Batch of 4 targets.
Target 1
Amino acid sequence: MTSPPGPDATVRERRPLVVLLLAHYLSSFGNAVTVVTIPLYVLGVTGSSVSTGLAGFANTLPLIFAGAVGGVWIDRIGGKRMSVVCDLLAGTVIGLIPLLNDTVGLALPVLMGLLFVRSLGSTPTGAARQSLLKGLSDRAGVRLESANSWMQGAPRLGLLVGAPLGGLLAAVSGPVVGMYVDSATFLLSALLVGVAVPGGPVAPAAERQGFVRQLTEGLRLVKQLPVIGAMTSFVFVTNFLDDAFTPVILPVYSDQVLGGGQYLGWLVAASGCGAVAGTFLYGPASKRLLTSRRWTLLGCFLVIGGLRLALGGQPNAVLSIAISFLLGLAAGPLNPVLSTVMLNKVPQALFGRVFALTSAVAMSAAPVGILVAGWAIHGIGLRWTLLAFGATYVVLVLVSLRNRALREMDNLTPPPGTADGGGAPGTDKELARD
């Protein structure tokens, strides 16, 4: 008769998951510090807002393609190796910026190139770690909803804590220190994952297909899994509406309605606090209250739409800050919900490609939404823009109630032939370990 595992065995089984989450929080915190320190550094060195904008462009340009390309490499070499390589690359490059600046000097084109490479390295790390999450949560005996809640909370909490700290470091000792902090978090993250996190499955080299074929294979799988396509389409539309809120709508709202740009910080901070709370609360709430992933998705967006309509009434500062908190709270469960479905429905051998592809499609709506929001405020005014955006949320949710594909969100059984990360068209069930 086999005796149950003792406390030491339980700790050993949970340790890899804890280490993975710790590494994710470290790099998310470092990323948030860099969000503040890079523009301050460039502005301080060049004194030019144009150069600062170019630095931001170089730092974000890889987001367009690095995720999709990185997704193929995640499936080729495994999530663990990809995470370690990307962290080492990003940590080394961001550390070179202040080092070169303090020694031989740093020309602006070289700085742009380093920022580009740094972002190129850091972009695929989230998907790489996400590809390891299901196996580690199963091994630790932790519900996937809870594990996703903890992981998705990292960028939100990192931004909430890291951005103010980055500003404080820049004020006290200059932005260079913040870049060293970012470098250290990436390098420590690489060390933690490399030493303490076991690898996931990797297709044997002899069975790998060509790069382009592997990339398009993810698209074919999305077409064969209607629930993934439906979720991606849904998030594409909501990103179009949502990603313009902080950079365009809130600044105008704080200025025109509340009477001063100083309220913008309070609105953003309230939304950030709400998002952190909502993300972490989803784990325990999913056990009894938010048991349906489909209704959680639709319900959260319905609440968001209603709150946007409430902002259209242009309430006073206290109510506006409270509404911003509730908007963040309602948005908190969304990423854990979507990630839970993705991890269960997508074969592990294809997860990197599918995750990167769907993320790229969803993110592509953001710049268009920002432009439309700016034009709408100029053309019809802030109040009607808020009402139009809020009403669109409500209509989208009502239309999605009849979408049969979204009902599969509550069925986490993998499709036939895709269980255990294999069996998708064009893939082999026999996997090596990285």
Target 2
Amino acid sequence: MHLRPFDRLDRYALRLFAIPLIAGVATMLVATMLGRLLRLFDIAASTGAALPLVLLMAAELVPHYLGLALPVAFTAAIFMAAARMCDDSELDVMLSTGRSIARIAAPYFVLAVLLSVFNLYLFGRLQPLARYDYHVRMDQALQTNWDARIEENRFIDIAHGFSFRADTVDEGGRSFRGVFMSRRDGAVEEITTAERGRLEAALNGQGMRLQLEQGVRMRTTDAGEVTTTRFDSGYFQEALPANSPFRDRGAAASERTLAELWQTMCRTCEQGAAAEFHSRLARSLIPPLLPLLALPLGMAAKRGRRTPGVIFASVALLLLNHSLQFGKSLAESGRMPAAAAVWTPYLLFALLSLWIFRGSLAWPGDNPVSRAVAGVETLLERARPLRRARVAP
């Protein structure tokens, strides 16, 4: 079989597909991440974590939600492109020139293969690393509170040679008025006073820093020299408590890459690693099945079957996602082998998609879903006269 390069019609089909795909991915990311973002800002408000740390945590969540958004957006984009071609009678023109449904779907299958390659990187490496980084930053945010108990008008020793005192301390123990700090290192002594101070997380997430406003710093050297510095705003971080280190990556199977999961499976036959490995691999290979489902349902839009097609595709993707998750849980608990538990719903979805696609090859818009909807409508129409006859006196 001679493989021809993409022609003008293929490029046109991809242009119809590109904008819905970008809009779908952006919409799905915003919709799915909004609730988590609100939760992150709530944690930041309660712990006093710095805004850059919160934004970094939100960025670490993008790979996870991108893995959920891509299949839905990819399916919706193909559906909308096929519906557009049907509504404008462009599909009829393509078919009249001898172009088959399979040939029309070719550029979408090529993109699906490329998306599967990207998914292998997304699910195999990017997601587990981002998940671990998210937990590290979340631990830093939760450890932001200063362990030292600060009482008003009481000197406390934060570290060796470093004392701190505040005239007024707010209820959260993070904002101060009338700050006095003294630090001695050998013969060098440094005294800092400030009208206001606030304790917050360091920008790099390591330890704490104290923001001071309207202050004076006096430093005495071992030679007896005294220097005085006035400042409107400044930061002090030395000798403040640092966060305890987070655990090493890999304690959970979800934090390991595909290569690490494969090594664990070969070395220890761990059920959790096998379940995670097969689940990620199955999710990576979903895109080639999506054109088989979305294109026939989109072509049915010309006959007024658009809404049932959207509902059917949404339900099918939802069931596939939950089935893969359920199969992974069965494999982790040891009730089923990982390969059977994960790949069974994948194969069922593949057979369903292939059946729908083959059913539409004879005539565009005619597929098992549209025929089922037409059959239900016929039954309802036949039932109406019977219902009227029963109601009539």
Target 3
Amino acid sequence: MTDRFDILIRGGRVVDPANRVDQVTDVGVADGRIVAVGDDLRGRAERTLQAAGHYVLPGLVDLHVHIALPSAPGAGHAMLARAGVTTALDLSGPAAGVLAGAAEGGGAGLSIATLELVKPGVQLPPHPSRAEIRRALDRILAAGGLGVKLHVDAGWDAEATGTIIDEANRAGVWVASHCGTTTAGSDIEGLRETLELAGDNRLQIAHVNSYCRGDVADVAEEAATAIALLRGSPHVFAESYLAEINGTSGRCVDGVPANRRVIRWLEGGGYPGTEEGLRRAIRDGWASVPHVCGDDVVLRTGEEGVAAWEAAGTPSGVCLPINPGVSRLLLGASRNAAGGFDVHAFATDGGCIPRNVTLSMGLSMVEWGLLRVDDLVRKACWTPARVLGLAAKGHLGVGADADLVVADPVARRPRTVIAAGAVVAHEGLVLGRGTRFISTARGEEAVEAATGPGTVIDVRAGGLYTGDGLA
């Protein structure tokens, strides 16, 4: 056993289900790795953290974030670090933009990967051939991305959606979907259609809770339907988030929101589905406007929120409280007959959108008895690490990457966050710098040119394709 530690964490409750550890003990870190876990560790430590009364957990692995924010390129990184996330997958891209943002904003010491949101008429024709899809995939990989993201608002039809999913599987790259096409909405029917289009192909289903907002049936009924649909597609990776707010465009054209879903949401909140209705909702505090404040993004309401929204000419994003607690909790806690989770992981759809609440809301679910602490770690750390194929992350075994969170169980927030053996955030202050970018071998050269040497993975070897973590 080593007699030297860069960081020694003493007396915390270490919760690491991958290694069947749940006990008050010590954790030693050296050279970016976990080098010892045990009682009363002895040795010289450069830094000692007293963790009595706190949880010591693996760093969170969030497989659905949005990091890029042109007006504050470092904010998404800093916000994730404060929330205890040490590894994240951006579901917008493009890779060049995420890499440039990481370099310009300085990063926060996290491990980051990205997909690229593909749109008809932009990366691909509206009805792409398989050859055109393959060429687009190769370009995305070469730029440092892991694969593609499909989105209902992009306007893909069902045939193109199915073909892109199939071609991504043939290429062994990552593919994720915000469900819905030109024939189905972003709702429970969109989830049903997407699973049918995917067939036996592998796919990440983004934010399952967002298809269970009561648009088609009762919220609890929609959640039960979503669970049944996912049980019928056990090869598909599903995640959901725990925040009440969504994030969407506040852009208005000719006096009405450009996104028709915003019209419906406003009307559901008791406001006219118009630009003036959105203005009133912000003024009343029902809707909020994300506003950059240093390396953070905060939500503004009232006249301050209206001013921020109007200053951007109304294209500013808005957040609306439209995610019912019933579906969030049912989907977060639901288990199948084998004891596994129907929705495999927690993700935030956050990053630079201020809803990075997996740890705080997850610990609330622990207090309510809906989850155990080790369940939370499985869903927020261990399972997503396995799905991404990062065997050294998501757990605290000797030899694992030293990605950890010391969390206050009463305040339900991270106190200290460690990534690759360095403290990247402490009491809300972000200290980490740089980014460890995760790409395939095809993108290694682009990543090194932008942010320095990164981590190379084979997507096909991870759980998205092998099923590791999906049982």
Target 4
Amino acid sequence: MKTIKRPPGLWTTITLCSLLATGCGYQQYQAHPLVAAHGHVSLRAHDTGDSGFLAYLHEEGYDSRPEQWGWQELMLCTLYFHPDLDVARAQLSRAIAAITTAEQRPNPSVSIAAGRRNEPEVPEVYSLRFNIPIETAGKRQARIDMASNLSESARLNIAQTTWNLRYRLLSSWIEFNAAHQNLTMLKEEVQLRSEIVSMLTLRLQAGMISSVELSNAKLQWQKSQQALVEEQGRIDELKTQLASNVGLPLDKFEQLPLQLHATSQLFEMQRDLDIANLIDTTAQDAALLNRVDIRAGLAAYAASEARLRLEIARQYPDIHLGPSYNYEEGFHIWSLGITSLLNVLHRNQGLIAEAKALRETEAAQFEALQARVIATMDSARSRYRSALLALEQARSLYDTQRTQTEQARLRFEHGFADRLELSTYQLENVLARQRFLAAEYQVQRAAAALEDSMQLPLENLDSLTSSSRRPALHHPFAEEAAS
């Protein structure tokens, strides 16, 4: 009786070990269901007394929780609590994960087969085959470059989001302060108009004036009362908007002692800025390079370049090495095969054309973005300059009216003017002050818009022209993303 040859036990052991090795190190799925109610809970949990936020304040140079909250303190709340930054950070994490995916090399594959033959002498047949893919033409590096540039764009998106939140917060803070100032002056106006209506009523009863004069005064009084009611409602709306921009629930925001009218401190220097410096092309070019969306556009274009390079590299097929081992009829058979794709029907022309079109699109969008930014900067500078001129005119008229009101007060004290004349001058003084403050806040709005067009505070404008290096936007989350 013949002894049947069998494959050595070593190969069986290797095969089992390889199968066991492929089953190790896998991650397990963990469900994280999203419930709509959780968002409400998360928002309501935002509190300036939170230990994490207090530690963040300490890192920013605050020894304790601020007693008065101006817009800069509120900006720290925005950076810590606002959910838009969570979205930007999550997008960055996804982009960084894409780099890991791009760096991965294709996994080899293995094929194991076993069978039986009808011949009793050699009934068993075994085979072991491997497939080892080898990428050619620099495809992996092109993928890495594309993912890296998209990651840079996502990192810059955090800075862009931060700046957008800053501008929204500053704008709503200016409007909130302006509304409070306007409300105070509307109360003075209503009080003075009420006194004038009362005095005109007595004069009408005495036959000293016509009813038309009293009717006009009453109409103006009613209009000022209506404006007062509307401004009170507008303040509530602005408070809600401000709380949203800060990232706090309304009930928590209302507990903060706000330091109103602090925005004037931001613009004390801006009124004295030389307009010529704002028109200087060097400052404009530097500010243009400073904008985050410009840098993000460059990163997006670089990503499209890398994608085109990847699609061109895919014209060249990859190589697959196929070493194999077979055991048949008592013989150990080793072989090595090489497999590659034949580019007979096409050479990836479609995807190459798409990548070229994408690159052209990114280039056109970048040029359009630059044109929009330049136009926005020119328009913002013009509005700022016009607002400054209007402010000077309103200041001059207000100074003249104050002088006339003071003269009327002196005439009244010496008996040369009556109460109605004094109240009329006082009302005109209040109206002139309203126009002056409206012009002042218009300057603040224009200055904020000018800052937004350059994405740089105006007090840092000199740093653009004094340094040849491109300035960076400094904020905690951008630095965190960079690290």
